[in-house]
Specification:
Elements (H helix, E strand, L loop, with lengths): L1 E5 L2 H23 L2 E5 L6 H7 L10 E5 L1 E3 L10 H8 L9 E3 L8 H13 L5 E4 L22 E5 L2 H9 L12 E5 L1 H5 L4 E5 L5 H9 L17 E6 L13
Parallel strand pairs: 1-10, 2-3, 2-6, 3-5, 6-9, 9-10
Antiparallel strand pairs: 4-8, 7-8
Helix pairs in contact: 1-2
Length: 250
C-alpha cells in the first residue's frame, strides 16, 4: 500500500481521480474495456467531481459496479446509493458501456446477491474506488467483517456506529430511519480488484485511519486488510491523517 496525505480535500480528490482515470485509460488501452467499482458517501464527493471531468476517458468502454445498497430502500430515496451515483457520476459522463447497480429493493436479497455475483465474475475489476467508514468498515462490511467468504455479494447487518455515521452525514432524519440491513460487496471480492484507490477525508475518520494503517490487520477494523493489497493507494487529507505517527503531507 502507498499512502499519500494532502493539505485539502480538493487536492486529495483531484489526485485520487487522476490516478483512477489513468488506471481506466490503461485498462482500455490494454484490452478495450475497463471494469470499475465506485463507492458513495461524503468521502467520495471531491474524487467523483474530479473524475467526471477527467480528460480523454472513453466512458463508452467502461463497465461500472457499485459497492452496496440498503435493503428495501427505493432508488428515489435521498439516501439511495443508486441515486447518489446516478446524479454524481452516471448522468455526468457520456453513456457507459454498462451500469450494474445493487438493486436491493427489486428482488429478494439472496437472488440479488446471486445475480450480481454472476455479473462481476464475468468482469474482473481493474480499479475499485473506495472509502472507509468511521468504524473502519469497507463497503458495508462492519466489524467483525467476514474475511473468509468467497461470495461476491452478501447480506450484512449494519452496526450502531455505521448507522450513526449515515445519520450524522445527513442522509436520514432520525436513527430509526436508517435501515438495519444492506447488500454489500464482500471483502474478498473487493480485494480481487487489480487496483484499489481509497479516498478518506475528515477528522472524524482519523481514528479509523490510524487503526487501518498502524494497528493489527483484523476483521475488527475491516479496512486494515487493504495493507495486504499489492496495488492499493490510500489518499488522505490532513485531518484524516492527524493521528498517524508519520503524518507527513505529500
Amino acid at each position: 500500500m502507498r499512502t499519500l496525505i494532502f493539505r485539502t480535500k480538493l487536492a486529495m480528490g483531484a489526485a485520487a481521480a487522476g490516478h483512477a482515470a489513468s488506471l481506466i485509460r490503461e485498462a482500455i488501452a490494454r484490452r478495450g474495456q475497463a471494469n470499475v467499482i465506485l463507492a458513495t458517501g461524503a468521502s467520495q464527493f471531491e474524487m467523483l467531481s474530479a473524475l467526471v471531468a477527467a480528460p480523454d476517458v472513453e466512458w463508452s468502454r467502461v463497465v461500472m459496479f457499485h459497492l452496496d445498497e440498503y435493503i428495501g430502500l427505493p432508488a428515489s430515496h435521498p439516501a439511495s446509493f443508486r441515486k447518489y451515483l446516478t446524479e454524481r457520476f452516471v448522468n455526468m459522463v457520456p453513456a457507459l458501456k454498462a451500469v450494474h447497480f445493487v438493486e436491493a429493493d427489486l428482488r429478494p436479497p439472496a437472488d440479488e446477491c446471486r445475480r450480481l455475483g454472476k455479473l462481476i465474475a464475468a468482469h474482473p475489476i481493474d480499479a475499485a474506488m473506495v472509502g472507509i467508514g468511521e468504524n473502519g468498515h469497507l463497503a458495508f462490511n462492519d466489524p467483525p467483517a467476514d474475511f473468509d467468504t468467497e461470495e461476491p455479494y452478501i447480506v450484512v447487518k449494519l452496526d450502531a456506529a455505521c448507522r450513526r455515521q449515515q445519520l450524522g452525514e445527513g442522509w436520514f432524519k432520525t436513527i430509526d430511519d436508517v435501515p438495519t440491513q444492506a447488500i454489500s460487496m464482500s471483502i474478498r471480492q473487493i480485494m480481487k480488484s487489480a487496483n484499489i484507490v481509497c479516498t478518506v477525508p475528515d477528522a472524524r475518520k482519523a481514528q479509523a485511519v490510524q487503526a487501518a494503517l498502524e494497528g493489527p490487520i483484523t476483521n475488527m477494523c475491516p479496512a486494515s486488510i487493504l495493507r495486504e493489497h499489492p496495488r492499493c493507494r490510500m489518499l488522505l487529507d490532513e485531518p484524516a491523517a492527524a493521528l498517524l505517527e508519520d503524518g507527513k503531507t505529500r
